[in-house]
Amino acid sequence: MPKLNTTRRDFLGLAGSAAVAGAVPIVTLRPLEATPAMLTSAIRNVVGEAQVQTGKVKIDIPPLVENGNTVPMTVSVTSPMTETDYVKSIHVFNEKNPQPNIGNFYIGPWAGRAQIATRIRLADSQKVVAIARMSDDSFWSVSADVIVTLAACTEEVN
Amino acid sequence: MASTLINVPPKAKRGDIIEIKTLTSHIMETGFRRTAAGDLIPRNIITSFTCRYNGNEIFRADFFPAISANPYLSFFTIAKESGKFEFEWIGDNGFSTTASASIAVE
Amino acid sequence: MKPSYAIALALLLLCGSSFAAEIPGGERRSGYSFMGPDTRAMQDDDTSNPGMLFVLDGEALWNKKLGAADKACSDCHGDARESMKGVAARYPAFDKALGRPVTLEQRINMERTQRQQAEALPYESRDLLALSVFVANQSRGMPVTAGDDPELKPFVEQGRALFMQREGQLNLACANCHNDNFDKRLAGSPITQGEPNGYPEYRLEWQTLGSLERRLRSCITGVRAQPPDYGAPELVALELYLMSRAHGMKMETPAVRP
Prior knowledge:
The structure holds 3 protein chains of 3 kinds.
Chain A: H1 2-15, E1 26-27, H2 36-47, E2 52-54, E3 57-60, E4 64-65, E5 71-77, E6 87-94, E7 101-106, E8 115-120, E9 126-134, E10 139-148
Parallel strand pairs in A: 2-10, 4-10
Antiparallel strand pairs in A: 3-5, 5-8, 6-7, 6-9, 9-10
Chain B: E1 4-7, E2 11-12, E3 17-24, E4 34-35, E5 46-53, E6 56-63, E7 72-78, E8 83-91, E9 95-105
Parallel strand pairs in B: 2-9
Antiparallel strand pairs in B: 1-3, 3-7, 5-6, 5-8, 8-9
Chain C: H1 3-15, H2 37-44, H3 51-62, H4 73-77, H5 80-83, E1 93-95, E2 100-102, H6 104-114, H7 126-137, H8 153-164, H9 174-178, E3 185-186, E4 189-190, E5 201-203, E6 208-210, H10 212-222, H11 233-245, E7 256-257
Helix pairs in contact in C: 3-7, 6-7, 8-11
């Protein structure tokens, strides 16, 4: 089974490539691997020494994606969004991309609803983690598991 | 200026929570891909996005290479007064593009 | 070719008939019907469909004066919303002077070189894609009519023969997957019927807009055959056959597909 992982990663590299408008042939060899330590340290950068509790945050993401290049993701946080009780920011991380950060989103009570949606890249099947920072500087989080398969017919580098 | 598509309701009632959707043209080159020769293609991404409502910042985002090409973003705000939303995207290699949309709030 | 893929495709090869039957009229489905809800939502909203960014670019190019003749497309063709309605739906179309079908991209380049006296745009270049998707977008919602012209008959037949012909190291014909095995999956992705009614389309795999020819070349590479060059008569014939096979289906340009 480990052999399959290696082949899959090489194939992922090739799958991640595309001839860019015929200009420069592009191939990706083994991409750098993120480690759980990188993810932990990226989260530490945002929350510092504070405790992160589970709850209040929700990630809407397809459990099996059509293509890892463009995965629609919505993060929403339960909060009254009043002047005294609101969400300050939402931070999204991943487990296995070359880099652990995906995006940081800064809102406030004027938002009315603590919800953002975007499209992200996922290099492999992995966890996506979303952490919300509240107005009282408490942190809440949730994680979602996503399965990423390869596209069937990948382009050769011509 | 990069092409952008903005979706803001043209009118709203005061106090309504409205959704703002933006889509902008950008390759979002991750900096992890290599050419056939093995050279790294340098990173070229949008790094930040800001939205101002009549001059006040109501939303800001930091983008990393994990954000897909042609970045899409949706967020919410309370319709407070008539006026203008201004959007700005800034990125690597001096990339900068802006867009705006008006709203009538009664 | 990785062993797991070779085995999967060899099985497909054994299971698929060499006598690939055509899909009956009532069962023909757009690629849209094979997509998940998220991908469909991306296509349905013009302000969230990345292909529309290219349509915007194409509109700007349509109105731009260029070439030695210093003419814009709009100078002769006026408002594309009127003049280009239904055009892409009947392409590839027969060109009398050349005596063969030409694709929309080739027609655009012919207009550029002959009327605007400008350089032809390279295949798959951003500008050519923007112009062709802008023109094709004007046919969105209209039924495909390509192949109706009786002069096109021999070329449609040529395209059909290519569609049915096994090729490449994997010895597969387009029909083996797209007639015989649609609705099944290949490596996690759904196999569609290969209808071209959404082209030029935004493919998540490419992270950009691309033409039908790009897709055909990558499929042909996928079965480990040598793909013809962009604009080659074989690709034009195949494109013509595919469009005629989708006769009556509504155009969706720009579609969003994985």
